[in-house]
Amino acid sequence: MAKIKSFEELKKIKDQVQSKVGLREKGENIDNLIQIRVAMATCGIASGAREIMNYMIDEMTSQGIENAVVTQTGCMGYCYAEPTIEVTTPGKEPVIYGDVTKEKAKEIIDEHVIKGELVDGIIPMTHKTIDQ
Amino acid sequence: MANYTMHMLVCSGTGCKSAESDLITANLEKYVAEANMTDEVQVLKTGCFGFCEKGPVVKILPDNTFYVQVTPDDAEEIVNEHIIKGRKVERLLFVDPKTEKMVSDSKKMDFYKKQLRIALRNCGLIDPDNIDEYIARDGYHALGMALTEMTPQDVIKVVKDSGLRGRGGGGFPTGLKWEIASKNDADQKYVVCNADEGDPGAFMDRSILEGDPHSVVEAMAICGYSMGATIGKVYIRAEYPLAIKRLEKAIEDAREYGLLGKDIMGTGFDFDIELTFGAGAFVCGEETALIHSMEGERGEPTTKPPFPAESGYWGKPTNVNNVETFANVPVILLKGADWFSSIGSEKSKGTKVFALAGKINNVGLIEVPMGTTLREVIYDIGGGIKDGKKFKAVQTGGPSGGCLTVDDLDTPIDYENLIAKGSMMGSGGMIVMDEDDCMPAVAKFYLEFTEEESCGKCTPCRVGTKRLSELLELITDGKGKMEHLDELKRLSRVIKDTALCGLGQTAPNPVLSTMEAFWDEYIAHIKDGRCPAGQCTNLLQYIISEAKCVGCTACVRVCPTNAITGTVKKPHVIDQAKCIKCGACYDKCKFEAISKQ
Amino acid sequence: MVANIQLTEEKFQELEAFINSLPTTKGELIRVLHKAQNIFGYLPAEVQKFVAKKLDVPTAKVFGVVTFYSYFTMVPKGENDIAICLGTACYVRGAEKILDAIKKEINIGVGETTPDGKFSITSLRCVGACGLAPVILVGEKVYGRITPDMVKGIIDNYR
């Protein structure tokens, strides 16, 4: 470890390590955040869910989006439409997108997460989520 | 780099560690690796979550799922169900005893709802062995701010204005203490952290050191800056191996980062910390005794003045604060004096950490705003008395404190109110007692403790505590006389007035406060030869109920002294002169015909 | 056990090396005694005299410090040290009855060691596992929520 030579340097380190606890801090406030759950069961991962998830995390970090959190869940049952992601806005019903590509993921972030507008590719809900 | 989307936090405070939480962590790691999820799921050990009653605890974030009483064997199911399949493991969720519903979100549990965690802000949230996680939570920012933007006087002013008072017992204003130490010029001054938690039944300070050691390190450096000290010393119990290990690691990492040592953050301020090990002596909680112990001597107190702020460690100005007091400091600097002083009651600001234990449903470590009532603590947070019994008293302040009773349930808890009730804040042990606890016996328990821990230097304490405990012994043995009660009162007053230090001056508190609140119980022991709680063996009487006894003779056969007589199928009687109160008949009787009185 | 209590020359040398490594011996008596107890397992008169000589302080002072602190012991601990928590939380949940059961089971009192060196009993104030009260420790292993009739079974594990 290099020595921290000024208060400014300490602040920079904080920005770099923020992600270590950012997820936990968000968890303390989860009810007020938009939750994006990526289905990360075997079939999801095989269809590229891991790449989509990482892409979304990176994209949201680079855009500085603070009011949403990306987490993972198990199989949602839409095997024909993997990768699938579920977006839950506080106080609203969850929305599920199927066949998510990077382009679609970007669209979801730009339109749904930031502006609150739904985009194409929604799968009608047939299952119950972890909280119900 | 791994993009974690899920964190599994495993409590590794002493309570949960005692119940194999390390093995839980290892198993979780193993199954996460087997599921090929090591880049998404991070398993880590944190400090105490506080909910010790239901430990070991595993918390999963960000969905805030709180699993209780987890065993190492449950790890596989948690990973398979929660992580892979996205379903909660319902059998491990906490069940609210009132509604009998499962609660998965810890924020919605009664235990946490009324709590406000300031000193414990990072406990159970960060990995205490990882300095980066502390920095991510604004760690060392208060120190950086103090060194670059504030004068030592500014720092003292903020601490003074915040109203922070010593959390170790007496409640002396912390800012004022720092100010006095800063005004005494010397070539060397010392900052001392008292981590010698000797109060039986208290584990707050240890939990902070285990869960968030950097907060204490940072605060000590801030204190050093404000008073002009360059050396910090932590006086810590050798019996706290885990806390020592975490603190040593924290100090080492802080040095590596240049947050301790020479020229901290390029500001020219030097400060370093070393550990000194105590060897187990309750009296060392007293400042002057602690300082003598740090000098390698017997931990005997000396008269004040001179106060340590003038002449302390090796005769130099020394400021002593306890762990919890220090843990509050960084947040106060960052959030401001106004924020802190807006919490709490009129004269007691901020929060207090309590170790809630005894006959209560939710044993644990809690932090509540000053001024919270005892009722809220016991019934809302603590979940009420164990096994549906009746609440009798709560003991605060350990051996120096006293008992609060049913009448005090709605008293807001703060320094002044506790003193007015004949108790004190102490370090924060809070032991709940129910109808089965005998108050003279509890007083005896504490007096035996102070008698043993009295350093022997002054006579009132050395001899006085011995006499007090002898008198209590007579009473609980059934040999008490009414004049013994007068004697207890008189002696207590003398000790309070004449003992040298806090240990002796407060030693009679458990006697006086139990006599005040439970006078009837003392009388029952003496006049009726009876222990209402049924605890004092010598005063117990086993009695056979004529109505319930069917004359099965089972008790006759187990009685070792042939004290039970009677004919078959007729009610039996116990000869009290022969009975040795072994309880064998009581255990044997199938008809609940034998009662203890 | 037997190996544990031997006051061998090497042990004295180890202690001496530690004392010599200290920059100053001023105020370091307790630190040296911690080390000594760590090396020898206990602090018999011979060790106290040795420490006194090395630090150039009266033996009476060393004895005074050793007897003052509960952590220091002049009796060697047993192979299995049974430490019982007598903190208030454990007390109200019946620690005294547990202690009585332990005493009865191995026939020694607190601070004593069995003649065969197998067991010793120590009392301590609060382990911090109040949720598990009453608690005993055998060596490093913690046993929680115990009742008097569990005592025999626990001790039998170490016989």
Your description of this structure?
The complex is a heterotrimer of chains A (132), B (597) and C (159). Chain A is of the alpha+beta class. Chain A is built from 4 helices and 5 strands; from the N terminus they run αβααβββαβ. Chain A has one domain: Glutaredoxin. In chain A, helix 3 packs across helix 4. In chain B, the strands form 6 sheets. Chain B has a 5-stranded mixed beta sheet. Chain B has a 4-stranded mixed beta sheet with strand order 2-1-3-4, with helices on one face. Chain B has a 4-stranded parallel beta sheet with strand order 9-8-7-10, with helices on both faces. In chain B, strand 11 and strand 12 form a beta hairpin. In chain B, helix 2 packs across helix 3, helix 7 crosses helix 10 and helix 21 crosses helix 22. Chain C is an alpha+beta fold. Chain C has 2 domains: 67 residues; 77 residues, Glutaredoxin (3-Layer(aba) Sandwich). In chain C, strand 3 and strand 4 form a beta hairpin. The mean pLDDT of chain C is 90.
CATH architecture of chain A: 3-Layer(aba) Sandwich
Return residue spans of chain B where pLDDT drops below 50 for at least 5 consecutive residues: none
Identify the CATH homologous superfamily of the largest domain in chain B. Answer: NADH-ubiquinone oxidoreductase 51kDa subunit
CA-based gyration radius of chain B? 27 Å
Helix percent of chain B reads 25-40%
> Total domains of chain A, how many?
1
The name of the CATH topology of the largest domain in chain B is Rossmann fold
Secondary-structure-derived class of chain B: alpha/beta
Which structural class should the secondary elements of chain A be placed in? Answer: alpha+beta
Supply Rg of chain A.
16 Å
**Please, what is the average pLDDT of chain B?**
92
Number of domains of chain B: 5
Average pLDDT metric of chain A: 85
